[in-house]
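Write out the bound-state structure for adenosine-5'-triphosphate.
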Amino acid sequence: MAKSASKPVIELTDLKKRFGIGDAEHYALDGVDLTVNKGEFIAIMGPSGCGKTTLLNIIGLLDRPTDGEYLLDGESVEDLRGGQASRIRAGRIGFIFQSFNLIERLNVLENVALPLTYSGLPHMKRIQRASDVLKSFHLQEREYYMPWQLSGGQTQRVAIARALVNNPSIILADEPTGNLDSKSSHIIMEELSEIHKRGNTILMVTHNPNLTTYATRVITMLDGKIDTDTAEPREAALKVSTKRPLGKSAKTKKKPSKRKGKKS
Ligand SMILES: Nc1ncnc2c1ncn2[C@@H]1O[C@H](COP(=O)(O)OP(=O)(O)OP(=O)(O)O)[C@@H](O)[C@H]1O
Ligand SMILES: [Mg+2]
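---
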């Protein structure tokens, strides 16, 4: 469907997550307010330990907040029991993890078909659907490979295929390109971009300011709180990357090179 009047798919109010007790008590999330509308592509940035993964885990129903409210598609998730949460996750949310998280004893096809376990589809239909998705990622020749036989880029593409097999409306990606070379990163980002264009909502954690150009909105976090929130990805990216002054990167210190007039 084309742009329906933007209705929040995710609404967080004063969300908190505490880990540890006593002296070890620590708020990984310390009062997060966030409204995400359908079709947004949000990049989440911020220093290590600021709470990005914790936030995605709670949004993805893998963890529960200590305090605050979380509405998913307008409904509170507070009272969901484990089984209900799994069902919602399987039906609506696709998770791409920081580490690839494929199941080592299952082949590629079985890994991708896994989220369809709750779909009610018969086994053959699930395998067929998984195979179709792998084909769209040009991985059909790897269907019967085991995870350890894949390259890093292929593994992450399988993980993305798995996240998409059940047609989720929300994709949560935790540094989907963190372990990849720039060429594989580019392929992954193009794929996420394509998924976004199809009307899906994406929340992606990244440490790479360049990747925020794919997003429609950039959020930075600091100490468990949202620090900045902007709909102009480029500007936000520049703010985050100010540690290396623009135009005065290490490159300017290099001796004049004798490179042939190559486009860079
Ligand atoms: N299960 C846990 N038990 C105790 N503390 C935790 C747990 N999970 C996370 N934390 C703490 O919560 C804080 C936020 O962690 P989180 O993983 O969300 O950070 P992050 O922003 O994703 O960092 P990175 O960029 O390194 O992945 C950290 O201080 C971390 O040590
Ligand atoms: Mg993290």
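---
The two ends are 39 Å apart (CA to CA).
Strands lie at 8-19, 26-37, 41-45, 67-72, 75-76, 93-96, 170-174, 201-205, 217-222, 225-230.
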